[in-house]
Every structure is written in structure tokens, then in C-alpha cells.
Amino acid sequence: MAFTGSGELVGAVDQGTSSTRFLIFNSKTAELITYHQVEINQMYPHEGWVEEDPFEILDSVTTCIESAVSNLAKLGMGVSDIKCLGITNQRETTVVWDKETGQPLYNAIVWLDMRTSSTVKALVGRTPQNNKDYLRPHCGLPITTYFSAVKLHWLLENNPDVQEAVAAGRCLFGTVDSWILWNLTGGVRGGLHLTDVTNASRTMLMNIHTLQWDDFLCRFFEIPKSVLPEIRSSSEIYGKMDSGPLKGVPISGILGDQQAALVGQTCFKLGQAKNTYGTGCFLLYNTGTEPVESKSGLLTTVAYQLGPRKKAVYALEGAIAVTGGCVRWLRDNLGIISTSDEVEALAQRVDSTHGCYFVPAFSGLFCPYWQDSARGIICGLSQFTNKEHIARAALEAVCFQTRELLEAMNKDSGIPLHQLQVDGGMTVNSLLMQLQADILQIKVVRPSMTETTALGAAMAAGAARGIEVWNIDQEESTSITTDIFTPAVTQSDADSRYVRWKKAVERSMDWETDSAPIVPQGNSYRRTLAGGLFLWTSFAVLVYAHLHRQAR
């Protein structure tokens, strides 16, 4: 990509569920100069468990930074042009590590992970009237498997290494931003143990009103404050890069990925909203400087706090667990596509799903149901159904789930949205965007700058006091709208399809029955990796023996 215009450059680490990227922007034009991307592997040691290797996450960050920075030389620019960098990250994913050795005490437990279903039931059982919304007035969130405190509570109950490290004062906890920041600023050599208000608001441990760790919440989850990072604003100088090509460059912005997309879409006014299509799908609605408690199954969250002296801005959020993850499932589990990009062409071969509906409740149902026991189903099958119909049903599932979020959002806010701003990797799929407009019966607006998540982190970093190369206060728009999708079907057609979708959702509910939880033993981080190597080695031996017999 050719560099146009002048101005300082700002970098952004975008560490997502499926991949890590480092992107470099021109702070004056918001133009993306260059980037590098690395895919992240997910591990599924048991049904419903989703883990990632913290060191793989960290290595992917350093690899992306080194590769993107090396690209600058080819464009006639150097490291000195990068004035600061920001971090945006997959939220709720939980990492625990030893501050003396820097070693993870366990794999990162990904936000999608379902192992804590029994933990949730036990925690809800402690509340008056078994109320999963008992903690909402304090943290804005229901008690579900989604949030970090539940995962950390599970580790403290079940993992001897974590228990030992806590007792010895060596355990540190963080969402992925904290793990990255601690390592980039020195790790065991004085790394900074910090997080920002947006990530802290996803743990269930931060008071949504005071923006501080809450004693009542910490006691409820039996989590010692000693393991928690310090909470900071989303835009300030936290520290400097300790090594690598950007050594000495300030790190000055942190935002959870969905909040970063809200900033990148410049949704700074009350009532503005965006929907991000990634591994999951997340609709955020700016509610201003006062938190709004949802009555419709949505989440109350911190949208951003762009400086320690500025007021926090809040949002209502609708969260869908599996959207892009569904396409990845079609690729990796069913093998009906070779790359995720192929799903659009496959789905376009048919004019409809012909009654096929796909509810991808692989990790239960999030907003507005919050039902951990739901499981994915494909229904309405006939002998006529083929892989094209299933691919199209997977795309429609994204759109139907978004409509559920939008209806809840309209009910809570009292101000119906007349158009939806979108971003994220899936928005390159024009068929998906048209289906979304059809099912919502409103305009869907796709900007030319689809990298709004990384852009938001760069904006927060560049606007930090002491950096000030990005003027957010006067920001009107960082992107030019290139595509507007308008409904191409009637309201009655959209409604009838939506009614059948709701029937499919009902059939997916209460599918999973109670089962005894699997508890790890010993050093779970090393054991998980060792167990994986053992299984792969055993598999390789069996394959070799089979091929050897065939050859004979």
C-alpha cells in the first residue's frame, strides 16, 4: 500500500480470537499503511473447552510487529516515524501466570469456553432466588460462563499450580491485554501489570460506577485482589516497549476489541451504534456518561475513557458467541469449504436456504437468552438440502442473531436504529451484508475502512496526553462510506423467516444435560501441551504402521 499524505504513524496490536495483527496508520489521514497477520491456533482438550497457548499469542504479537515494521523500509519510512502504539484484544479470555518466572500457569481460557457451566450454577445458587442477574447493579453483567471472574474462580478451585502461586504471592491474572502489556514492557524485568476500564468491565470484578475493583464482587467470586492488574483509562502512556524494533516507543492506548471498533467507527455521540462481525458478533450502542441497566438481556459495559481526567462513556452491548466461528467450523470440521472466503460463492449458488435453519449455539446462547445448555442444530433438512443451502443458512444465522440483538437494543434504548454501521472481517462478504439488510429491514452501512478495531486502538494511543498526534475531539469521520445495502425483500418475507428462526432457536435450548466437570491435575499448562504431543505421536505411530503394512 502506497503512503499518501504526511504525519506521524501510530501502530496497533490487534490480538483477536482467531488471529493477531499489527497495523500501522497515518495519524493525520487514518490511512492504513501496512500490516502483518498471524493465525492463532485453538485447542479443544474436552467438549466445550476452548484454550489458546499464551506464549503462542505473545509470539504472534512480536512476529507481527517485526514483520510490519520491516515493511516500512520498503515504503521509504523508518521506525522513528512510529510515535506510539495501542493494544486491542479479545476480551474475557483469561490468562494466569507466574510473575517470577513469566511462565503461564495454565493455557488461556478463551471467552467461548463452556467448562464453567457447573461453576455458574453453583454461583447462581448462592444468590437470593437463584438470580443470575443478582450482580448486574454492581458490574452490569449476568453470571454466565462468558466472563473472566467465573473462569478465574474455576482455576482457583481446580488448579493446584494456580492455588500454589496465589498462596506464594506469585500469581498474576489478566485478560489478554494485560498479558501482552506485561511482556512488552519487560515481563520478569519489571513488566507493568495493568488493564484498562473497558477490559476490566468484562471481568465481573469491576464496579461499573466507580471503575475500581469491587470488594463485594471479589468476595463473591473468592478472588484475591492481589492477583488483579491496576485499572487505567483507555488512553494514556502506560509504559514503553522494552525490546524489539520498537524499543522505547510508548504504549499509550488499550481498548477491548469491541469498544475499539466503536471508537474506530467514531460513535462518540449518544445513540450511535456499530456491529462488528468477527469470530462472534457484537453490537454496541453508545448510552453516554451514565450506565443503562438492560431489561432485555443485554450487557452494560464501559465503552471508553479517553484519558484519566475524562469521564467514562458507557454502552449497551449485545453479544453473539458464534458468527465467523461458524464459517470456520464449516471449513475445519465439515470441510465443505477450503477457505473462509469461499462461503460467499457457495451460498450464492442457491436463491434461498429452502427451509434450512442453522443455530450455531456451539457455546450456548448469549444475548438475549444467556442459556449455557443450548447446543447447535441444523434443522429443516430434506433430501433436496445440500452444502450450498447449509452455507447460506450459516450466513443467515449471523443475520437472524443480529436481529435479535437489535430488537433488544431498540427496546432498552427506546430509540430504534434506522441504519446499522458495520465492520469486521466478515463484512467483506457482500452477500452477508445484503442478507443482513433484508432480515433487519434497515440500511446496512459498510465503510471503506473495515479495520476499525485496530483503528480505534491507534486513535486512543495517538490521542493520549504526552503523545497527541491524533485529534479525536474534532474527529467527525475516519472513513468514507463505500457501500450501503438496502432491503431487497418485503417486511412480511423477513418476518416469516425470522419466526421460523425463532422456532429453531427454541429447539436448540436445554439440549445439554448436567455432567460431572473435568478437573485438571498437576501442572495443567505443561500437561495439556504434553498430552497433545503424546496423542499426536501415538497417531503418527499408528499411521506409520498402517502405511508400512500397506507397502508390504
Task: Give a structural overview.
- This protein has 552 residues and is of the alpha/beta class.
- The chain has helices at 54-74, 117-124, 136-139, 148-158, 160-167, 176-184, 197-200, 215-221, 257-264, 324-334, 342-347, 387-413, 430-440, 452-462, 491-508, 524-551; strands spanning 9-15, 19-26, 32-39, 51-52, 82-89, 95-98, 108-109, 171-174, 194-196, 230-232, 235-240, 250-256, 273-277, 281-288, 299-304, 313-320, 357-359, 377-379, 419-423, 443-447, 481-485.
- Strands 15-16-14-13-19-20-21 form a seven-stranded mixed β-sheet. Strands 3-2-1-5-12-11 form a six-stranded mixed β-sheet, sandwiched between helices.
Bulk shape? globular
Strand order of the largest sheet: 15-16-14-13-19-20-21
Distance between the termini: 55 Å
Whole-angstrom Rg: 23 Å
Instruction: Look at the structure and give the mean pLDDT.
Output: 88
The biggest beta sheet reads:
7 strands, mixed
> Which stretches are poorly predicted, pLDDT < 50 over at least 5 residues?
1-6, 526-552
How many E strands? 21
Structure described in brief:
This protein is of the alpha/beta class and 552 residues long. It has helices at 54-74, 117-124, 136-139, 148-158, 160-167, 176-184, 197-200, 215-221, 257-264, 324-334, 342-347, 387-413, 430-440, 452-462, 491-508, 524-551, and strands at 9-15, 19-26, 32-39, 51-52, 82-89, 95-98, 108-109, 171-174, 194-196, 230-232, 235-240, 250-256, 273-277, 281-288, 299-304, 313-320, 357-359, 377-379, 419-423, 443-447, 481-485. The termini are far apart.
